[in-house]
Amino acid sequence: MTATPRVLVVTAVPAEAxxxxxxxxGAGVQGPAGELVLPAGLRVRRVLPGGASGPVLDVLAAGxxxxxxxxxxxxxxxxxxxxxxxxxxxxxxxxxxxxxGRAPLGAVVVSxxxxxxxxxxxxxxxxxxxxxxxxxxxxxxxxxxxxxRAVAAATGALTGDVLTVATATGxxxxxxELAGRHPRALAEAMEGFGVAEAAAAxxxxxxxxxxxxxxxxxxxRAAWRIGDAxxxxxxxxxxLGPALVPEPNQPAQPTQPTQxxxxxxxxx
Length: 268
Fold this sequence. Notes:
The structure is a single chain. This protein is α/β, with parallel strands linked by helices. The protein has a single domain (6-261), classed as Nucleoside phosphorylase domain (Rossmann fold). Helix content is 28%, strand content 27%. The strands form two sheets. A five-stranded mixed barrel has the order 5-11-10-6-12, surrounded by four helices. Strands 7-8 form a two-stranded antiparallel sheet. Strand 7 and strand 8 (128-130) form a beta hairpin. Helix 1 (14-21) crosses helix 7 (226-240) and helix 2 (66-82) packs parallel to helix 6. The longest helix is centred in the N-terminal third of the chain and has 17 residues, at 66-82. The protein is globular, with a radius of gyration of 17 Å. Residues 7-232 form the Nucleoside phosphorylase domain. Its EC number is 3.2.2.26.
């Protein structure tokens, strides 16, 4: 890692990227060095939320879903490594659905684990078998514990698991099923696990930071608070500062699911 920590922040859409870059209040890098154009037209914007003494945030809107997020993250990490200036941390960031009773609208959540919640197969009894259950791979990446604590302390975020789904939940039954399988889950989004897979392949630690815009469950667009969530995301990144410095030798690591052995309560 360079003397000034470089953090790759990966969002899905430009509105989320704009919310992250707004944390710097215009304190970005001007000129050609302030924007990197990657293959496929991906653009990375560089901002300095803490001034010259704080971390450098390179913000990328990689696209919606785990595949686009993973591909965009891998592209940015590879470009940085080839340039001899690799990233020290990757953050999957944006808005998310919050599980009722666990993460209310407007709350900020930080991942203890990034979980692929629907990567697997339906069982004959109607249940779900993860790829780990099937013996094909892993579904969980854990964030560095010290970094999670530091980010939560700086932002007031809730700490727990963030689920990655390829199809956003739209029914109460599906929300209850996910909450039952993942008692530590605070929120669901669509990119975190893809970002984590790319980070792990490059040996870089990963974190997911989300602001809750809607409840997980029946789709009620009238109840969504996207603007408020984007504002909360901006404030969270503004508060982070030196907290976005990973622990030494803590790359992203896939782990076995731990939902059945974790306590059900959520901590702040």
